Amino acid sequence: MTEVPFPQPRECPYHAPPGYLALAGSGPLSRVTLFDGREVWLVTGYAAARSLLADRRLSADRTRDGYPLVAPRFRASVARQLVLIGMDPPVHDDHRRLLNPYFSLRSVRAMRPMVERIVDKYLDHVESLPQPVDLVSAFTTPVPSQVMSEVLGLAEEDLDFFQDASRRLLHATTQEDSQAAGGELIGYLDRLATRRRTEPGPGLMGELAPAVVAGELTQHELVQIALVLLVAGHDTTASTLALSVVTLLEHPEQIAALGDEERLPAVAEELLRVLAVTDLAGVRVALEDIEIEGYTIRAGEGVLVSATVGNRDGSVHDDPHAIRFDRTGRNHLTFGYGIHQCLGQNLARLEVQVALAKLFARLPGLKLAEPAESLPYRAPGTGTVQGVNRLPIFW
Ligand code: HEM
User: Fold this and answer.
1) How far is the CA of 231 from the centre of ligand 1 (A)?
2) Which atom of ligand 1 lies closest to the CA of 144?
3) What is the pLDDT of residue 79?
4) CATH no. for residue 25?
5) Residue 273 pLDDT
Protein backbone atom coordinates (compact mmCIF):
# COMPACT_ATOMS: atom_id res chain seq x y z
CA MET A 1 0.00 0.00 0.00
CA THR A 2 1.30 3.51 -0.77
CA GLU A 3 1.99 5.83 2.14
CA VAL A 4 -0.46 8.65 2.81
CA PRO A 5 1.44 11.67 4.17
CA PHE A 6 0.17 13.81 7.03
CA PRO A 7 -0.32 16.77 7.07
CA GLN A 8 -1.46 17.66 3.55
CA PRO A 9 -2.08 21.20 2.27
CA ARG A 10 -5.53 22.65 1.84
CA GLU A 11 -6.15 23.86 -1.68
CA CYS A 12 -8.63 26.39 -0.36
CA PRO A 13 -8.79 27.75 3.21
CA TYR A 14 -12.32 26.47 3.82
CA HIS A 15 -12.29 23.09 2.07
CA ALA A 16 -10.65 19.90 3.29
CA PRO A 17 -7.60 18.64 1.33
CA PRO A 18 -8.81 16.18 -1.31
CA GLY A 19 -6.35 13.58 0.01
CA TYR A 20 -8.05 13.55 3.40
CA LEU A 21 -11.50 13.23 1.87
CA ALA A 22 -10.33 10.22 -0.09
CA LEU A 23 -9.30 8.63 3.22
CA ALA A 24 -12.64 9.43 4.82
CA GLY A 25 -14.32 7.62 1.94
CA SER A 26 -12.62 4.39 2.95
CA GLY A 27 -13.77 4.40 6.60
CA PRO A 28 -13.70 6.35 9.87
CA LEU A 29 -10.06 5.45 10.68
CA SER A 30 -7.06 5.39 8.32
CA ARG A 31 -3.30 5.04 8.51
CA VAL A 32 -1.14 8.08 7.68
CA THR A 33 2.62 8.70 7.75
CA LEU A 34 4.25 11.58 9.66
CA PHE A 35 7.39 13.57 8.72
CA ASP A 36 9.57 11.22 10.77
CA GLY A 37 8.31 8.17 8.91
CA ARG A 38 6.05 7.02 11.68
CA GLU A 39 2.62 5.53 10.86
CA VAL A 40 -0.29 6.67 13.01
CA TRP A 41 -4.10 6.58 12.93
CA LEU A 42 -6.08 9.45 11.45
CA VAL A 43 -9.66 9.48 12.71
CA THR A 44 -12.03 11.08 10.22
CA GLY A 45 -15.49 9.86 11.33
CA TYR A 46 -17.36 12.18 13.69
CA ALA A 47 -18.76 9.45 15.99
CA ALA A 48 -15.40 7.65 16.26
CA ALA A 49 -13.69 11.00 16.91
CA ARG A 50 -15.99 11.85 19.82
CA SER A 51 -15.76 8.38 21.26
CA LEU A 52 -11.95 8.39 21.16
CA LEU A 53 -11.60 11.94 22.52
CA ALA A 54 -13.70 10.87 25.51
CA ASP A 55 -11.70 7.65 26.02
CA ARG A 56 -9.43 7.57 29.08
CA ARG A 57 -7.30 4.87 27.44
CA LEU A 58 -5.80 7.58 25.23
CA SER A 59 -3.23 9.95 26.71
CA ALA A 60 -2.56 13.60 25.81
CA ASP A 61 0.78 13.55 27.63
CA ARG A 62 3.32 14.80 25.11
CA THR A 63 6.28 13.53 27.10
CA ARG A 64 5.18 9.88 26.84
CA ASP A 65 7.04 7.52 24.55
CA GLY A 66 4.99 7.04 21.45
CA TYR A 67 3.23 10.41 21.55
CA PRO A 68 3.10 11.37 17.86
CA LEU A 69 4.91 14.52 16.74
CA VAL A 70 3.23 16.08 13.73
CA ALA A 71 6.11 18.49 12.97
CA PRO A 72 9.80 18.86 13.92
CA ARG A 73 9.20 21.94 16.07
CA PHE A 74 7.23 19.83 18.57
CA ARG A 75 10.52 18.24 19.61
CA ALA A 76 11.25 21.43 21.59
CA SER A 77 10.73 20.86 25.30
CA VAL A 78 8.69 24.07 25.51
CA ALA A 79 6.19 22.43 23.12
CA ARG A 80 6.21 19.08 24.94
CA GLN A 81 5.74 19.96 28.57
CA LEU A 82 2.45 21.73 28.23
CA VAL A 83 0.18 21.84 31.25
CA LEU A 84 -3.57 21.23 30.73
CA ILE A 85 -3.55 20.43 27.02
CA GLY A 86 -0.60 18.02 27.38
CA MET A 87 -1.56 16.45 30.70
CA ASP A 88 -3.77 13.60 31.82
CA PRO A 89 -5.99 13.41 34.92
CA PRO A 90 -5.75 13.88 37.83
CA VAL A 91 -3.43 16.91 37.45
CA HIS A 92 -5.21 18.06 34.29
CA ASP A 93 -8.58 18.05 36.05
CA ASP A 94 -7.25 19.96 39.07
CA HIS A 95 -5.91 22.73 36.86
CA ARG A 96 -9.03 22.77 34.75
CA ARG A 97 -11.26 23.13 37.83
CA LEU A 98 -9.19 26.11 38.89
CA LEU A 99 -9.49 27.79 35.48
CA ASN A 100 -13.04 26.94 34.36
CA PRO A 101 -14.70 29.80 36.29
CA TYR A 102 -12.57 32.42 34.48
CA PHE A 103 -13.79 31.23 31.08
CA SER A 104 -17.43 30.39 31.87
CA LEU A 105 -20.15 31.95 29.73
CA ARG A 106 -20.83 34.41 32.53
CA SER A 107 -17.22 35.51 32.94
CA VAL A 108 -16.76 35.83 29.19
CA ARG A 109 -19.91 37.96 28.86
CA ALA A 110 -18.26 40.39 31.24
CA MET A 111 -15.25 40.55 28.87
CA ARG A 112 -17.38 41.95 26.01
CA PRO A 113 -16.63 45.65 26.69
CA MET A 114 -12.90 44.85 26.82
CA VAL A 115 -13.05 42.93 23.52
CA GLU A 116 -15.08 45.72 21.89
CA ARG A 117 -12.60 48.37 23.05
CA ILE A 118 -9.65 46.41 21.66
CA VAL A 119 -11.39 45.72 18.34
CA ASP A 120 -12.27 49.43 17.99
CA LYS A 121 -8.69 50.42 18.79
CA TYR A 122 -7.24 48.26 16.03
CA LEU A 123 -9.95 49.31 13.55
CA ASP A 124 -8.90 52.93 14.18
CA HIS A 125 -5.35 51.79 13.47
CA VAL A 126 -6.40 50.03 10.21
CA GLU A 127 -8.22 53.16 9.05
CA SER A 128 -5.18 55.31 9.78
CA LEU A 129 -2.90 53.29 7.46
CA PRO A 130 -2.33 53.85 3.74
CA GLN A 131 -4.16 51.30 1.59
CA PRO A 132 -3.76 48.45 0.86
CA VAL A 133 -3.52 47.44 4.52
CA ASP A 134 -2.25 44.07 5.71
CA LEU A 135 -5.14 42.95 7.90
CA VAL A 136 -3.06 40.19 9.51
CA SER A 137 -0.46 42.50 11.06
CA ALA A 138 -2.82 45.43 11.62
CA PHE A 139 -5.90 43.67 12.99
CA THR A 140 -6.38 39.89 13.09
CA THR A 141 -3.15 39.18 15.01
CA PRO A 142 -2.97 42.10 17.48
CA VAL A 143 -6.63 41.82 18.56
CA PRO A 144 -6.43 38.31 20.12
CA SER A 145 -2.94 39.06 21.37
CA GLN A 146 -4.05 42.12 23.32
CA VAL A 147 -7.18 40.27 24.53
CA MET A 148 -4.97 37.46 25.92
CA SER A 149 -2.60 39.96 27.46
CA GLU A 150 -5.50 41.70 29.26
CA VAL A 151 -7.04 38.37 30.31
CA LEU A 152 -3.69 37.42 31.82
CA GLY A 153 -3.27 40.86 33.38
CA LEU A 154 -0.01 41.91 31.73
CA ALA A 155 1.13 45.51 31.94
CA GLU A 156 0.22 47.68 28.95
CA GLU A 157 3.82 48.80 28.46
CA ASP A 158 4.83 45.14 27.98
CA LEU A 159 2.37 44.61 25.11
CA ASP A 160 4.97 45.14 22.34
CA PHE A 161 7.41 42.65 23.87
CA PHE A 162 4.59 40.18 24.49
CA GLN A 163 3.23 40.44 20.94
CA ASP A 164 6.68 40.08 19.39
CA ALA A 165 7.77 37.10 21.52
CA SER A 166 4.40 35.34 21.02
CA ARG A 167 4.63 35.85 17.27
CA ARG A 168 8.11 34.33 17.22
CA LEU A 169 7.02 31.39 19.38
CA LEU A 170 3.91 30.63 17.35
CA HIS A 171 5.57 30.96 13.97
CA ALA A 172 8.78 29.15 14.83
CA THR A 173 9.51 26.42 12.34
CA THR A 174 12.51 24.96 14.13
CA GLN A 175 13.05 23.48 17.56
CA GLU A 176 15.69 26.20 18.33
CA ASP A 177 13.48 29.18 17.47
CA SER A 178 10.58 27.74 19.40
CA GLN A 179 12.77 27.13 22.45
CA ALA A 180 14.32 30.63 22.34
CA ALA A 181 11.06 32.58 22.08
CA GLY A 182 9.36 30.28 24.62
CA GLY A 183 12.25 30.88 27.03
CA GLU A 184 11.84 34.67 26.81
CA LEU A 185 8.12 34.47 27.50
CA ILE A 186 8.61 32.06 30.40
CA GLY A 187 11.20 34.42 31.93
CA TYR A 188 8.83 37.35 31.59
CA LEU A 189 5.81 35.49 33.03
CA ASP A 190 7.94 34.16 35.87
CA ARG A 191 9.05 37.67 36.88
CA LEU A 192 5.42 38.81 36.78
CA ALA A 193 4.28 35.83 38.88
CA THR A 194 6.95 36.65 41.48
CA ARG A 195 5.75 40.26 41.64
CA ARG A 196 2.09 39.26 41.93
CA ARG A 197 2.79 37.13 45.01
CA THR A 198 3.34 40.27 47.03
CA GLU A 199 1.73 42.99 44.92
CA PRO A 200 -1.91 42.56 43.81
CA GLY A 201 -2.65 43.06 40.13
CA PRO A 202 -5.29 42.53 37.47
CA GLY A 203 -6.23 39.51 35.35
CA LEU A 204 -5.56 35.83 35.79
CA MET A 205 -1.99 36.31 36.98
CA GLY A 206 -3.26 38.62 39.72
CA GLU A 207 -6.13 36.28 40.63
CA LEU A 208 -4.13 33.07 40.66
CA ALA A 209 -1.02 34.37 42.44
CA PRO A 210 -2.73 33.94 45.84
CA ALA A 211 -3.20 30.23 44.96
CA VAL A 212 0.60 30.03 44.70
CA VAL A 213 0.99 31.74 48.06
CA ALA A 214 -1.60 29.33 49.52
CA GLY A 215 0.31 26.34 48.12
CA GLU A 216 -2.52 25.15 45.79
CA LEU A 217 -0.39 25.79 42.72
CA THR A 218 3.35 26.08 42.22
CA GLN A 219 4.77 29.20 40.61
CA HIS A 220 6.10 27.01 37.81
CA GLU A 221 2.55 25.74 37.18
CA LEU A 222 1.13 29.27 37.15
CA VAL A 223 3.72 30.36 34.57
CA GLN A 224 3.05 27.26 32.47
CA ILE A 225 -0.71 27.85 32.61
CA ALA A 226 -0.24 31.43 31.41
CA LEU A 227 1.99 30.23 28.57
CA VAL A 228 -0.51 27.58 27.49
CA LEU A 229 -3.35 30.09 27.48
CA LEU A 230 -1.26 32.32 25.30
CA VAL A 231 -0.24 29.55 22.90
CA ALA A 232 -3.72 28.05 22.70
CA GLY A 233 -5.67 31.29 22.54
CA HIS A 234 -3.71 33.56 20.30
CA ASP A 235 -2.87 32.18 16.87
CA THR A 236 -6.00 30.01 16.73
CA THR A 237 -8.27 33.03 17.06
CA ALA A 238 -6.07 35.23 14.85
CA SER A 239 -6.08 32.68 12.03
CA THR A 240 -9.81 32.07 12.35
CA LEU A 241 -10.38 35.81 11.96
CA ALA A 242 -8.14 36.15 8.90
CA LEU A 243 -9.54 33.09 7.11
CA SER A 244 -13.09 34.15 8.03
CA VAL A 245 -12.52 37.40 6.14
CA VAL A 246 -11.36 35.46 3.05
CA THR A 247 -14.34 33.10 3.32
CA LEU A 248 -16.88 35.88 3.78
CA LEU A 249 -15.52 37.86 0.85
CA GLU A 250 -16.10 34.79 -1.30
CA HIS A 251 -19.66 34.53 0.06
CA PRO A 252 -20.57 38.24 0.03
CA GLU A 253 -24.30 37.55 0.21
CA GLN A 254 -23.71 36.43 3.82
CA ILE A 255 -21.97 39.58 5.00
CA ALA A 256 -25.25 41.34 5.85
CA ALA A 257 -25.95 38.64 8.46
CA LEU A 258 -22.99 39.93 10.49
CA GLY A 259 -25.00 43.05 11.29
CA ASP A 260 -27.94 40.98 12.58
CA GLU A 261 -27.41 40.03 16.22
CA GLU A 262 -29.78 37.08 15.89
CA ARG A 263 -27.93 35.56 12.94
CA LEU A 264 -24.37 36.48 13.88
CA PRO A 265 -23.75 33.45 16.19
CA ALA A 266 -24.75 30.98 13.44
CA VAL A 267 -22.47 32.70 10.92
CA ALA A 268 -19.55 32.54 13.35
CA GLU A 269 -20.29 28.90 14.16
CA GLU A 270 -20.35 27.86 10.49
CA LEU A 271 -17.06 29.69 9.92
CA LEU A 272 -15.57 27.83 12.90
CA ARG A 273 -16.86 24.50 11.50
CA VAL A 274 -15.47 24.92 7.99
CA LEU A 275 -12.19 26.59 8.98
CA ALA A 276 -11.17 24.35 11.92
CA VAL A 277 -7.81 26.11 11.99
CA THR A 278 -6.06 23.64 14.28
CA ASP A 279 -6.91 20.97 11.70
CA LEU A 280 -6.69 18.40 14.50
CA ALA A 281 -9.20 18.10 17.35
CA GLY A 282 -6.66 16.15 19.38
CA VAL A 283 -3.40 14.23 19.23
CA ARG A 284 -3.08 11.22 21.52
CA VAL A 285 -1.17 8.02 22.26
CA ALA A 286 -3.02 4.79 23.14
CA LEU A 287 -2.23 3.39 26.59
CA GLU A 288 -4.09 0.11 25.96
CA ASP A 289 -5.51 -1.74 22.97
CA ILE A 290 -8.78 -0.14 21.89
CA GLU A 291 -11.44 -1.72 19.65
CA ILE A 292 -13.45 0.84 17.73
CA GLU A 293 -15.83 0.44 14.79
CA GLY A 294 -14.09 -2.76 13.69
CA TYR A 295 -10.52 -1.37 14.02
CA THR A 296 -7.95 -2.19 16.70
CA ILE A 297 -5.72 0.62 17.94
CA ARG A 298 -2.76 -1.02 19.67
CA ALA A 299 -1.20 0.26 22.90
CA GLY A 300 1.60 2.69 22.04
CA GLU A 301 0.10 3.76 18.69
CA GLY A 302 -0.46 7.41 17.84
CA VAL A 303 -3.96 8.74 17.14
CA LEU A 304 -4.72 12.01 15.33
CA VAL A 305 -8.33 13.16 15.35
CA SER A 306 -9.21 15.26 12.33
CA ALA A 307 -11.51 18.20 12.94
CA THR A 308 -11.21 19.23 9.29
CA VAL A 309 -12.69 15.95 8.10
CA GLY A 310 -14.85 15.07 11.13
CA ASN A 311 -16.64 18.41 10.69
CA ARG A 312 -17.72 17.27 7.23
CA ASP A 313 -19.30 13.97 8.18
CA GLY A 314 -22.44 13.56 6.05
CA SER A 315 -24.20 11.65 8.85
CA VAL A 316 -24.03 14.80 10.99
CA HIS A 317 -24.41 17.66 8.48
CA ASP A 318 -26.54 17.76 5.34
CA ASP A 319 -24.50 18.75 2.34
CA PRO A 320 -21.40 18.86 4.60
CA HIS A 321 -19.02 20.56 2.13
CA ALA A 322 -21.33 23.51 1.55
CA ILE A 323 -20.97 26.67 3.63
CA ARG A 324 -24.43 27.39 4.97
CA PHE A 325 -24.93 30.12 7.52
CA ASP A 326 -28.39 28.83 8.50
CA ARG A 327 -27.17 25.64 10.15
CA THR A 328 -28.13 25.16 13.76
CA GLY A 329 -26.23 23.45 16.54
CA ARG A 330 -22.61 23.32 17.48
CA ASN A 331 -21.82 19.75 16.52
CA HIS A 332 -18.35 20.29 15.17
CA LEU A 333 -14.93 19.30 16.48
CA THR A 334 -13.20 22.65 16.00
CA PHE A 335 -12.86 23.07 19.77
CA GLY A 336 -12.15 19.38 20.37
CA TYR A 337 -14.24 17.18 22.64
CA GLY A 338 -14.01 15.47 26.04
CA ILE A 339 -11.94 16.63 29.00
CA HIS A 340 -9.58 18.75 26.87
CA GLN A 341 -12.37 20.54 25.00
CA CYS A 342 -11.25 24.12 24.47
CA LEU A 343 -11.20 26.12 27.70
CA GLY A 344 -11.38 29.37 25.75
CA GLN A 345 -14.21 28.54 23.35
CA ASN A 346 -16.63 31.10 24.79
CA LEU A 347 -13.97 33.78 24.52
CA ALA A 348 -13.03 32.69 20.99
CA ARG A 349 -16.69 32.90 19.89
CA LEU A 350 -16.99 36.36 21.42
CA GLU A 351 -13.83 37.60 19.69
CA VAL A 352 -14.85 36.17 16.30
CA GLN A 353 -18.36 37.64 16.51
CA VAL A 354 -17.31 41.10 17.73
CA ALA A 355 -14.30 41.44 15.41
CA LEU A 356 -16.09 40.34 12.21
CA ALA A 357 -19.26 42.33 12.90
CA LYS A 358 -17.32 45.52 13.65
CA LEU A 359 -14.85 45.07 10.79
CA PHE A 360 -17.51 44.77 8.10
CA ALA A 361 -19.65 47.51 9.68
CA ARG A 362 -16.70 49.96 9.67
CA LEU A 363 -15.39 48.99 6.23
CA PRO A 364 -18.45 47.90 4.21
CA GLY A 365 -16.50 48.21 0.95
CA LEU A 366 -13.77 45.82 2.15
CA LYS A 367 -12.10 43.87 -0.68
CA LEU A 368 -9.00 41.71 -1.06
CA ALA A 369 -6.16 43.57 -2.77
CA GLU A 370 -4.86 40.27 -4.23
CA PRO A 371 -6.72 37.25 -5.59
CA ALA A 372 -7.61 34.84 -2.77
CA GLU A 373 -5.77 31.97 -4.53
CA SER A 374 -2.45 33.81 -4.49
CA LEU A 375 -2.42 34.68 -0.77
CA PRO A 376 0.52 33.30 1.27
CA TYR A 377 -1.24 30.46 3.08
CA ARG A 378 0.83 28.76 5.77
CA ALA A 379 2.72 25.68 4.77
CA PRO A 380 1.49 22.48 6.39
CA GLY A 381 4.24 20.44 7.94
CA THR A 382 5.41 23.20 10.26
CA GLY A 383 2.75 22.30 12.81
CA THR A 384 1.39 25.84 12.90
CA VAL A 385 -2.34 26.36 12.59
CA GLN A 386 -3.98 26.86 9.19
CA GLY A 387 -3.71 30.50 8.30
CA VAL A 388 -2.52 33.19 5.99
CA ASN A 389 0.65 35.21 6.65
CA ARG A 390 -0.58 38.39 4.96
CA LEU A 391 -4.01 39.64 3.98
CA PRO A 392 -3.83 42.86 1.94
CA ILE A 393 -7.16 44.67 1.75
CA PHE A 394 -8.60 47.97 0.63
CA TRP A 395 -12.07 49.49 1.03
C1 HEM B 1 -10.95 29.82 17.23
C2 HEM B 1 -10.14 29.72 18.24
C3 HEM B 1 -9.76 28.44 18.93
C4 HEM B 1 -9.69 27.16 18.44
C5 HEM B 1 -10.00 26.69 17.02
C6 HEM B 1 -9.28 26.29 19.53
C7 HEM B 1 -9.14 24.91 19.43
C8 HEM B 1 -8.88 24.07 20.50
C9 HEM B 1 -8.85 22.62 20.44
C10 HEM B 1 -9.11 21.79 19.19
C11 HEM B 1 -8.56 22.16 21.68
C12 HEM B 1 -8.47 20.70 22.12
C13 HEM B 1 -7.07 20.17 22.03
C14 HEM B 1 -6.96 18.72 22.46
O15 HEM B 1 -7.93 18.08 22.86
O16 HEM B 1 -5.85 18.20 22.39
C17 HEM B 1 -8.35 23.32 22.52
C18 HEM B 1 -7.99 23.27 23.85
C19 HEM B 1 -7.66 24.38 24.59
N20 HEM B 1 -7.86 25.70 24.24
FE21 HEM B 1 -8.59 26.37 22.49
N22 HEM B 1 -9.08 27.06 20.64
C23 HEM B 1 -9.36 28.37 20.32
C24 HEM B 1 -9.30 29.45 21.17
C25 HEM B 1 -8.84 29.42 22.46
C26 HEM B 1 -8.73 30.57 23.34
C27 HEM B 1 -9.15 32.01 22.98
C28 HEM B 1 -8.16 30.13 24.49
C29 HEM B 1 -7.77 30.96 25.68
C30 HEM B 1 -8.40 31.15 26.70
C31 HEM B 1 -7.97 28.69 24.37
C32 HEM B 1 -7.44 27.87 25.34
C33 HEM B 1 -7.41 26.49 25.26
C34 HEM B 1 -6.89 25.65 26.34
C35 HEM B 1 -6.27 26.12 27.64
C36 HEM B 1 -7.05 24.32 25.91
C37 HEM B 1 -6.66 23.06 26.67
C38 HEM B 1 -7.82 22.64 27.51
C39 HEM B 1 -7.57 21.36 28.26
O40 HEM B 1 -6.64 20.61 27.94
O41 HEM B 1 -8.33 21.11 29.22
N42 HEM B 1 -8.38 28.31 23.11
N43 HEM B 1 -8.58 24.47 21.80
Assistant:
1) 9
2) 27
3) 67
4) 1.10.630.10
5) 97
Query: Measured in angstroms, how far is the CA atom of residue 367 from the centroid of ligand 1?
Result: 30
Query: Is 1 within a domain?
Result: no
Atom of ligand 1 nearest to the CA of 85: 40
What pLDDT shows up at residue 34? 95
Residues in the chain, total: 395
SS3 percent helix, strand, coil of the chain, rounded to 5, is 50, 10, 35
Q: Whose CA is nearest to atom 7 of ligand 1?
A: 335
Give the model's pLDDT for residue 171: 76
**Kind and range of the H or E element at 272?**
helix 264-275
Residues 188, 168 contacting (CB under 8 angstroms): no
pLDDT, position 78:
65
Cα–ligand 1 centroid distance for 144 (angstroms): 13
Task: Tell me if 70 is assigned to some domain.
Answer: yes
- Listed as ranges, residues in the chain with pLDDT below 70 are 1-2, 77-79, 383
Number of domains in the chain: 1
Q: Which of 91, 146, 236, 305 to mutate to test the pocket of ligand 1 (most atoms within 8 A of CB)?
A: 236
User: Among 47, 40, 68, which residue's Cα sits nearest to residue 311?
Assistant: 47
Task: Tell me which residue has its CA closest to atom 41 in ligand 1.
Answer: 340
pLDDT in tens, 50-81: 999 999 999 999 999 899 999 887 777 666 77
Which residue's alpha carbon is nearest to atom 34 within ligand 1?
A: 343
The residue whose CA has the least distance to atom 8 of ligand 1 is: 335
- Paired sense of beta strands 295-297 and 392-394, if any: unpaired
Confirm whether 11 is domain-assigned: no
